[in-house]
Amino acid sequence: MIQDFDALIVRNQTQVTSSLLKNAKNLIIIGRTGAGYDNIDVKAAMEAGVVVCYSPEENAVSVAEHVLASC
């Protein structure tokens, strides 16, 4: 299925490997919700011309709410 994707949005459990990227012929961008690229083979993505980005502040409000709610 990934050969038809232009974009891929993943969380921390989805592993974006070099073998997956080899099949992603149309992929332009990978968006990672949260912080870090630990589950994405960034080198393979760069070699394939795929932009990788993330959103480190995405859940900051939710984390603060959980901290205050547990006090």
How does this structure look, described?
- The protein is an alpha/beta fold and 71 residues long.
- It is 30% helix and 20% strand.
- It is built from three helices and three strands; from the N terminus they run βαβαβα.
- It has helices at residues 18-22, 42-47, 60-69; strands spanning 7-10, 29-33, 51-55.
- A three-stranded parallel beta sheet has the order 1-2-3.
- Strand 1 (7-10), helix 1 (18-22) and strand 2 (29-33) form a beta-alpha-beta unit.
- The longest helix has 10 residues, at 60-69.
- The chain is elongated, with a radius of gyration of 15 Å.
- The mean pLDDT is 91.
Task: Give a quick summary of the entry.
This protein has three helices and three strands. With 71 residues, the chain is of the alpha/beta class.
Q: What layout of secondary structure does this protein have?
A:
Elements: E1 7-10, H1 18-22, E2 29-33, H2 42-47, E3 51-55, H3 60-69
Parallel strand pairs: 1-2, 2-3
Sum up the structure in keywords:
3-stranded parallel beta sheet, 20% strand, alpha/beta, 71 residues
How much helical structure, as a percent, in the residues? Answer: 25-40%
Order of strands side by side in the largest beta sheet?
Answer: 1-2-3
Percent strand equals 15-25%
Overall outline: elongated
Overall mean confidence score, pLDDT:
91
- Parts with pLDDT < 50 across at least 5 consecutive residues: none
Most strands sheet: 3 strands, parallel
The count of DSSP E runs of length 2 or more, i.e. the number of strands, is 3
What gap, in angstroms, lies between the N and C termini? 45 Å
Cα gyration radius (Å): 15 Å
Query: Helical stretch count?
Result: 3
Helix- and strand-based class?
Answer: alpha/beta
User: Order of SSEs, N→C?
Assistant: EHEHEH
